[in-house]
Amino acid sequence: MISRRTALKGSSAAALGAATAAPAIHGAAAQARRETLLLISENPPNSTDIHGVGANRPAYEASWNLYDRLMTFGVKKDQNGVDHYDYTRLEPELAESWNLTQTSVTFKLRRDATFHDGTPVTAEDVKWSFDRAVSVGGFPTFQMRAGSLEKPEQFVVVDRHTFRVDFLRADKLTMPDLAVPVPAIYNSGLAKRNATAADPWAMEWLRANPAAGGAFRLERWVPGQEMVFARFDDWKSGRRPALARVIWRIVPQAGNRRALLERGDADISFDLPPKDFQELAAARRLKIVGTPVENAMQYIGMNVTKPPFNDVRVRQAIAYAIPYQRIMDQVTFGTAVPLFGGPAQPADATWPQPSPYVTDLDKAKALLAEAGYPNGFETTFSFDLGLASLNEPISVLVAESLARLGIRVTINKIPGANWRNELLKKEMPLITNTFGGWLNFPDYFFFWAYHGQNAVFNTMSYQNAEMDALIDRSRFTRNEAEYAEAIKGFVSIAFRDVPRIPLFQPKLMVAMRDSIDGYRYWFHRQLDYRVLSKG
Amino acid sequence: MLGLLARRLAAALPTLAGVVVVTFVMTRALPGDPAAYFAGPAATREAVEEIRRQLGLDQPLWVQFGRYLADLARGDLGVSITTGQPVLSDIAQRLPASAELTLLGLLIAAGFGIPMGVAAALRPNSWVDHLCRVVATAGVSLPTFFTGLLLVYVFYYLLGWAPAPLGRLDAFSSPPPHVTGFHLIDSALAGDGETFLAAAAQLVLPALTLGIFALAPIARMTRGAMLAVMSSDFIRAARASGLAGRTIVIRYALRNALLPVVTTLGMVLSFLLGANVLVEKVFAWPGIGSYAVEALIASDYVPVQGFVMTMAALYVALNLLIDLAYQAIDPRVRIEA
User: Fold this and answer.
1) CA-based nearest residue in chain B for residue A225
2) ipTM of the shown complex
3) Does residue B191 sit at the A interface (CB-CB below 8 Å)?
């Protein structure tokens, strides 16, 4: 690998020998720089193993680029002409082809694919990887279960290059769930050699030592500082990446990230404040791409188990009192899609879609009086300090607006480490929060966020038998008309009972230098190095 | 001398033991639940309990403490969940980064602060004195992150003189072979001039930021001590004997005034080492302060405990060093344990 340092050393040596040789070497250094992507982010990955305990979102990106899956999603253009993964199309990655039946799917693996250490990829490796995902507990097991992938017995090695998944039940999420980052394929031989009796799945070792076969190898990892990837030239599962090297540096200070991009020292970053994105887009100095995050929304949730929010009229009053447009203008700076002021009844079977609510303080006052709170009440508005740049101004604007109804709001800032714990307790009366699902199905969102099973994401503790019936019907029906009817049904209940007030659908923003091409939006909201190139 | 060392180290043991207990209790008393945090975005209650069990946090506190002590006795500080690495290796890697930066910052501060203090003390209430006071006050009242951002804005963003604030080395240099962990020393040992220059270039702005901040206590302390010494009898006697002004100031006055200055230097050093988190954040410096803060935000107990332990040990060592320096500077000082 040619780093600038070695290249320059080479050039000075060459200059001593023959002065004419120097320009050529400088050309090689420039070439190396052109094939190297410098990516900067706020938070470092804490693992290269997505199955690891506490693997964070940056770790998903490391795993995505280091490992292969059996299948991947296709690509389409969104309205702005940006590459967008296509969840309706599954394409081969490590598997060349597959045969899907009612009860199982059989994959044919590529015969020439190897891991980074040269070991051929076999069906045994796939089985070991899937067994691991459903056995280790925590996030990977949970994500596999979302696609009805629950037991090692479901994963069958037919022969060296044929692998079968037996279905527990008909579940439309099973196939897409095999193309998310979790079912990555590990080099089982290498992993087993580094497993111990206490740690049979080599969790400890795989954290920092990828046993992978994806398009990029891990060249160097200095935790908390940088991760360096080099292209794996024998990669067979897709087109050879244009980038030879990716250097991922952690820059904690937002202003410096912007300065680095503007000066051209860094190539790409997701992590800028909304206002910076707006300014940079206006100045046209960098390429700014914003893609609405599928199946995600920022919302205001009300705890329906306790007064005053157990009264639907109070919840509707709040929904009419939210300063929606001010939030769009002063908080998101155009990096979001509004989710208010929609038609009275859901127009189509999509999600998220705008609620029928708009800011109307007179209506809010009337509803509040009708509910028996003509002079308002006192309540607490809580948010996650970890996402303070959005949450804090939202809470201030909402509190200001509610004060006009006589509702006295105390703002409660909860440190990021404690937020999830507070959510699990389900005691906060009024919150703002964000939620998004990897798999882009309205029923998937509602199953986690509105269903009476009362999962942690149902932060309002909302329970309604009528809605549950519609959600359950939509999850398992194969009739498209019935599916659309069920979705419209539960969306309209969600707007009528309004336990959560949709605010906006966030956009995934990314800033890159003009020379960067091929950026693709992924549901996991991380960067795919394989498709990027530098002009 | 050896006896003194042994006695001093023995006296430090109760302090360290106290630190162990207090950090253990304090980290547990903090709000925040590491299990819920690390269970990830999609955790159910069962998933959180599962993680709690894996982390050993379901055990009673005294069992956790016992395990912690047993690990500590083996020199094992545990594994950080945020970085995924053993805390000991994290600290071993980050402490030299902080130390290199802090020492250089202190060198800058002392290099400017001591002459400034001496000059101010020689002409009290003159323009030199006032200038010294203004500079020192401005330096200490500007928050370090502000000074840092200002320097980055002017020297990197506007002028382009300084390299990108990307930590200890720019993205295309690789670190020198590890000997001391100090990039300047290691690259010099390896005879690698280019890496030395790259590392030095990265150091300039953050070290300057720290230096500006640390200037004030050093300059003020030097001035005060020098004023006291300059008005003392032996200086008057030296003057009366017709000694050259230079000899009086440097050999007699400054040497006697150094005692409180050395104390201040030690205090400033140990303070900066752990507390320059903001400078580390601005310059993406992989130091020990930002490490501890990141762990704290994630309620990752283990690195926080390791950090406090390390800082306590360093503090003890540093105080010992300062006491020894006292003896070297002033033979009248006799230190008892």
Assistant:
1) B286
2) 0.77
3) no
